[in-house]
Amino acid sequence: MERVFEGKVALVTGSARGIGRAIAEDLAEWGANQVILDIKQEDCERTSKEISEKYNVKCLPIACNVTVKQQVQEALEKVKSEFGGLDFLVNNAGILKDNLLLRMKEEEWDMVINVNLKGPFLVTQAFLPMLMKAKDGGRIINVSSISGLIGQVGQANYAASKAGLIGFTKVVAREYAKKGILCNAICPGYVQTDLTDALPDAVKEELRKSIPLGRPGHVKDISKVVRFLCSNEANFITGNIIRIDGGTVIGL
Fold first, then answer.
1. Which residue pairs from 117-121 have beta carbons closer than 8 angstroms and sit at least 24 positions apart in sequence?
2. Does residue 190 carry a catalytic annotation?
3. Residue 152 pLDDT
4. Could you tell me the pTM of the whole model?
5. 55, 158, 176, 190: which one is catalytic?
6. Secondary structure string (H, E, C) spanning 20-53
7. What are the chain's domains?
8. Which of 11, 25, 6 minimizes the C-alpha distance to 130?
C-alpha cells in the first residue's frame, strides 16, 4: 500500500472504536499520523497503541468531551505541541438517545444536539486556523446520517442534529473554499457496529430488508469513502452530501 498520506496528520473524533476507529485505521494505512480523540483516556491509549504498532504511524491519544469548549482548546494545544499542524479533521463523534417525540425528555434532546452538532462546531472552529495552513489544503468530513435526510421514527433529536450538520457542512464549504478547505458530509445508513449489534434481532431484520443491496454496511464501507475524500483524487469535491447506505434512500 502506497503511503500517500505520509507526514500528514488526521484528527478523528470518536475514534477509539466503531466507525471512527475504522476511519483512523484507513488513514493510518496510507501513512497519516493520528490524533485518537474520544471520551475515555484508556480507550484512546489502547487504540493509539494498536494503530501505531500496526501501521507504523505516530498516534496521540486525547480524552476530550467535544461539547466542552475548554477541553477542545486543551486538545488543540496538545495537537500543536505534538504535531504542529493538522491536515484532516473528521467529525465523527455522536450519540443516540431515541424516543418518541411526546416521550422525549429535554435532557435527551439537549445531549444529542450538544454532542452531534455543538461538538463539530466547537472542534471545527478550534482547528480551522491549523487546517488552513495545511500544505495540500485542509479536509473536513462531517459524519451525518440518512436520518438527517429522511427522518426516522423516534429520532427527532438525532435527525435534527444530523440535518443541522448537513447545513453546517455547506456553510463551512462556502466560507473557506478560498482558504483551501474542502468540507463534505457523509450519510451512512444502517452500519454493523457494536451499537447496532445490540438492537433486537427483529429490528435488525427490518433494517436489512430496507436496504436494496440486502445487507448492512460495514465500517470499512464508510472509512474508505472518507479516505478518498481526504485524498488529492477528491480535490474538486466540496459541499457535497454523500450517502453510503446500500441504496436505502435512492431518489434523494
1. 117/161, 117/164, 117/165, 117/168, 118/66, 118/67, 119/13, 119/66, 119/67, 119/91, 119/93, 120/13, 120/66, 120/91, 120/165, 120/168, 121/168
2. no
3. 87
4. 0.96
5. 158
6. HHHHHHHHHHCCCEEEEEECCHHHHHHHHHHHHH
7. 9-244 (3.40.50.720)
8. 11
